[in-house]
Amino acid sequence: MAQSGQAAGALNNGFGGQVILHLARNGDTLTAATSADKLFVSQDDGRHWRPLGGYPAPQTAAERHGEQLYTTNCQACHGDHGIGESPAPGKTSLAPALDETAHAWHHTDEQLEKVILEGLPSPSRMPAWSGTLTPTDARDLIAYMKSLWDARALRCQGPKHMSPECRR
């Protein structure tokens, strides 16, 4: 954000498909509120962002292994910590967020495992990972994804997401 005598500059779009709705400055800290009801902070004029409160740390061995697999195989498309792919010129389909801001939690663990291992049909860009990942690897990836979800997404995963108590 430009202040008197400063030039304006572009912010790093590390928000996946989320859009900044509000932006505020308090000293050296920028705070952004996004369309997914998330708050992010930056200490370097918007070049790097982290969620207010930080990212959850993987707790189990499966979550830690899943995080490693995610960083190696999934992050390039699905973004840091599952935030989703950021729009860019020429991109017609975006890899969705895998945190609770998109619809990954609308699927059961079994459905997620099938998508990871078998991919999705064209025009999706989601390849089959069965030649690279084992079923155990896929389950560890799902454990990591679920470590990024909020309590509501965990409670309402799968078909339960349509129940009245799970709708926002």
Tell me about this structure:
The structure is a single chain. The relative contact order is 0.14. This protein has a four-stranded antiparallel beta sheet with strand order 1-2-3-4, with no helix packed on it. The protein has 168 residues and is α+β, with helices and mostly antiparallel strands. It has helices at residues 61-73, 75-78, 109-118, 135-147, 151-155, and strands spanning 20-26, 29-34, 39-42, 50-51. The mean pLDDT is 87. The protein is built from five helices and four strands, in the order ββββααααα. The protein has two domains: 20-51, no CATH class; 61-166, Cytochrome Bc1 Complex, Chain D, domain 2. Residues 61-149 form the Cytochrome c domain. InterPro entries: Cyt_c-like_dom (IPR009056), Cyt_c-like_dom_sf (IPR036909), Cytochrome_c-type_DH (IPR051459). This is Cytochrome c. Pfam families: Cytochrome_CBB3. Keywords: Heme, Iron, Metal-binding.
Q: Can you count the beta strands?
A: 4
Helix content: 25-40%
Provide the β-strand percentage band.
5-15%
**Ends: how far apart?**
33 Å
Give the C-alpha Rg. Answer: 17 Å
Organism: Nitrogeniibacter mangrovi
Domain Cytochrome c: 61-149
Keywords: Heme, Iron, Metal-binding
Protein name: Cytochrome c
Concise account of the structure shown:
Helix content is 27%, strand content 11%. It has 168 residues and is an alpha+beta fold.
